[in-house]
Amino acid sequence: MKKVAAIVKLQLPAAKATPAPPVGPALGQHGANIMEFVKAFNAASASMGDAIVPVEITIYSDRSFTFITKTPPASYLIRKAAGIEKGSGKAGREKSGKLTWEQCLAIARQKLPDMNANDEVAAAHMIAGSARSMGVEVTGVPNA
């Protein structure tokens, strides 16, 4: 078994990673092959459209690496579903968009592998909470 030298977490645009910052400095300081990672990441995330993709890169002491791509952040998925550019700066007072409970469920299904929830409904409640904290109004939420 190889010895782990570092674990690097980044959020990169799908299929658009370049050796420029933040990728170059983050991997370069641990001696990993930057271009090899960029090519592998871009190939692995090509089907994800224009999403922001969190990636966890494990760099080993022999300078080899493995990486795991995660699902896009909840805030990105909420903004996309609500059709807004960004959340409200004053979340409790100003609404920046609307989301239905069905949209929360759809986002929860997509995010479920990366969430700490027992089922889809619990995950959807977490998504609804994130949406509310962004100033997005959530309609049709069942009482829990």
Automatic annotation (TrEMBL):
Gene3D superfamilies: Ribosomal protein L11, C-terminal domain (1.10.10.250), Ribosomal protein L11/L12, N-terminal domain (3.30.1550.10). Residues 8-65 form the Large ribosomal subunit protein uL11 N-terminal domain. Keywords: Methylation, Ribonucleoprotein, Ribosomal protein, RNA-binding, rRNA-binding. It comes from the Bacteria. One of its GO terms (biological process) is translation. One or more lysine residues are methylated. InterPro entries: Ribosomal_uL11 (IPR000911), Ribosomal_uL11_bac-typ (IPR006519), Ribosomal_uL11_C (IPR020783), Ribosomal_uL11_C_sf (IPR036769), Ribosomal_uL11_N (IPR020784), Ribosomal_uL11_N_sf (IPR036796). One of its GO terms (cellular component) is cytosolic large ribosomal subunit. GO terms for molecular function: large ribosomal subunit rRNA binding; structural constituent of ribosome. Residues 70-138 form the Large ribosomal subunit protein uL11 C-terminal domain. The keyword Transmembrane helix does not apply. Belongs to the universal ribosomal protein uL11 family. Forms part of the ribosomal stalk which helps the ribosome interact with GTP-bound translation factors. HAMAP family: Ribosomal_uL11. Part of the ribosomal stalk of the 50S ribosomal subunit. Interacts with L10 and the large rRNA to form the base of the stalk. L10 forms an elongated spine to which L12 dimers bind in a sequential fashion forming a multimeric L10(L12)X complex. This is Large ribosomal subunit protein uL11. The lineage of its organism: Bacteria, Thermotogati, Deinococcota, Deinococci, Thermales.
